[in-house]
Design goal:
The complex is a heterodimer. By secondary structure, chain A is of the alpha+beta class. Chain A is about 45% helix and about 20% strand. Chain A has a three-stranded mixed β-sheet with strand order 1-2-3. Chain A starts with a helix and ends in a 9-residue tail after the last strand. By secondary structure, chain B is an alpha+beta fold. Chain B is globular and about 35 Å long. Chain B starts with a helix and ends with a helix. Chain B has one domain: Glutaredoxin (3-Layer(aba) Sandwich). Classes of the chains: A alpha+beta, B alpha+beta. At the A-B interface, helix 5 and strand 3 of A face strand 4 and helix 4 of B.
């Protein structure tokens, strides 16, 4: 029994799949923090909403919802804001990120006021 | 992207005021993001053309390069790239999408 458990869990006792997802979220956080100095950055894993659909299977990546609040977006249109985020995550978009739901706001536009 | 693919995309955009490059069709979207844009266009009673990129791998890759935009769906109005699902939903909630569609539809083809 013990051997079975150790194969399915990493050293911290987390299921392996969850660890891979959280690694991707860490990479997203690092890239966006470095590129945009956000005042708020929320990253959610939405994989459960899309499990098993055709696109998820052939691409093999996760689905994430990202909200970025950054002063870097001031005076920048929505398309250009999203392009900046996509450019920072270009490598991940080709591999482990299949879909990204994006909300890009300036601090003044942030409804939570952070 | 080769020149013939670019030309095909340009021809599609020139021939239609509102074009959605999507996964699946308007009746059977095969991705939630594509389906969301279809719903928004229908809510605006828009006349629009769809291109199913799953049926055309060349267009699927070409359109990403065409718009410098790495994801599908992509909405074009009056030949201009408008955005993906998040931006389209945002424009709709602000009431700005209807105006864009109306303006493009009213423009005289040149």
């Amino acid at each position: 029994m013990a051997a079975t458990i150790s194969q399915e869990h990493d050293a911290a006792g987390e299921p392996m799949l969850r660890r891979e997802m959280s690694e991707t979220m860490t990479v997203i956080r690092e890239r966006l923090t470095a590129g945009l100095s956000p005042t708020r950055l929320d990253i959610e894993d939405e994989g459960h909403l899309h499990a098993g659909h055709a696109g998820a299977r052939d691409h093999g990546g996760g689905h994430y919802r990202v909200t970025v609040v950054s002063a870097a977006f001031e005076g920048v249109g929505a398309v250009a804001r999203h392009r900046r985020v996509y450019a920072l995550l270009a490598e991940e978009m080709k591999t482990r990120v299949h879909a990204l739901a994006l909300t890009t706001l300036t601090p003044a536009e942030d409804p939570t006021g952070h | 992207m080769d020149e013939s693919t670019r030309q095909r995309i340009t021809d599609i955009l020139n021939g239609n005021k509102v074009v959605l490059f999507m996964k699946g069709t308007r009746h059977f979207p095969q991705c939630g993001f594509s389906g969301a844009v279809v719903q928004v266009l229908n809510a605006n009673k828009a006349t629009y053309e769809t291109v199913n990129v799953l049926a055309d791998p060349t267009i699927r890759e070409g359109i990403k390069e065409f718009a410098s935009w790495p994801t599908i769906p992509q909405l074009y109005i009056g030949g201009e790239f408008v955005g993906g699902a998040d931006i389209v939903r945002e424009l709709h909630s602000k009431g700005e999408l209807a105006a864009l569609i109306e303006k493009a539809s009213a423009a005289v083809s040149s």
